[in-house]
Amino acid sequence: METKIRYLDEREKSRRLWETAFPEDSKEFADYYFRDKIRDNRVLVKEEEGEILSMLHLNPYNMKVGDRAYRLDYIVGVATRQDRRHEGHMKSLLEKMMEDMYEERVPFTFLMPASEKIYSPFDFRFIYDQPYWKLSPGYEERKVTAGHLAEASGEKLPDAAKVADWMNQWLEERFDVYTIRTEEYVKRLDAELASEDGSWIFLYRDGKLAGIRCLWGLKEKEERLLYLSDKGTAEADRMKPAVMARLICLEEFTANIRLKHDCGIHSMEVKIGVEDHFIRQNNGIWLWKLSMSGSVLEKISDQVPSDATEESTVFTPGELIEWLTGYRTDMKREWMEFVEPLGKIFIDEVV
Q: What's the CATH code of the domain at 255?
């Protein structure tokens, strides 16, 4: 039988497989997703005789990574037709996706997994834990029903552009990796919240905007986000592993890594080996040149010899992204103490 892997064009982005695979999604949310989010995403599918067997959706976000900005894809809608699962169809889609992303030289891609074990064989690793916050009293609350943000701005409440500016400032002061907010981003978030009967709660203290809270949920209200400019939050007892990422272009990712400002040296060169079973261009022995302003990789060999550990440290892509996002701290080599991971990651988008 003829099989084909390809990206759907705009007219072909059907919700049939989505609704079959994700029956827990409300009709209202699916309406929002296939009206708004689908407009600028890519849907990669595997077909057999013209019938879709598997799919994944690549939703683009403008992300700040250190000092740089990238258009990165959030992977959602990962599904295989129920009667054709466990046949390797999703593996072939993920391989094609990584190959294409490498050609685009993106540093990494990310997702919120239904199950960690599905993605860990492809070197996806957790990089972000979702915190649960408690709101302290003392704020004046002004509530706006989601879907009516534009109308509320006429009542001296912030419009979408002002909300985006406030969020960006809040994020920039706290994090190294986050999604850049724009007026369009906030308008989409407003529509997303409206699909689940949500609301905006603007928090004021001493007459100034001091926080933004969003609730949603058709049956039971849940907190979608809570950002406060002061110390009015207390972290709850638990942190939930939430976002997994896959290193894509090794050279682009490490360009955002630098030496620690207090490490006592201005430059350093080390050899590292990388064994990537899916993106062959990442494989090999690399000379890593680091400074206070960033770093550069130069490939020495396309192969990682069996005795590479004699002169270099060999990493998998999963180990690298865990370490260089600050998620994993138990990987110890003397020279690694001088390297500043990205750390301070904030990815709270939900699909």
A: 3.30.1050.10
Instruction: Give a yes or no: residue 30 inside a domain.
Output: yes
Q: How many alpha carbons lie under 13 Å from residue 218 in its C-beta half-sphere?
A: 9
Residue 174: domain span: 137-231
SS (HEC) of 213-282? EEEECCCCCEEEEEEECCCCEEEEEEEEEEEEEEECCHHHHHCCCEECCCCCCCEEEEEEEECCCCCHHH
Q: Do 10 and 100 share a structural domain?
A: yes
For the chain, percent of residues with pLDDT exceeding 70: 95
Listed residue (5, 266, 283, 251) closest to 107, CA to CA: 251
Strand-pair category, 140-145 with 199-205: antiparallel
Phi then psi dihedrals of residue 269, to 5 deg = -125, 130
pLDDT digits (tens, 9 = 90+) for 233-261: 655 556 789 999 999 999 999 999 999 99
The pTM for the full model equals: 0.93
Task: Indicate whether 347 belongs to any domain.
Answer: no
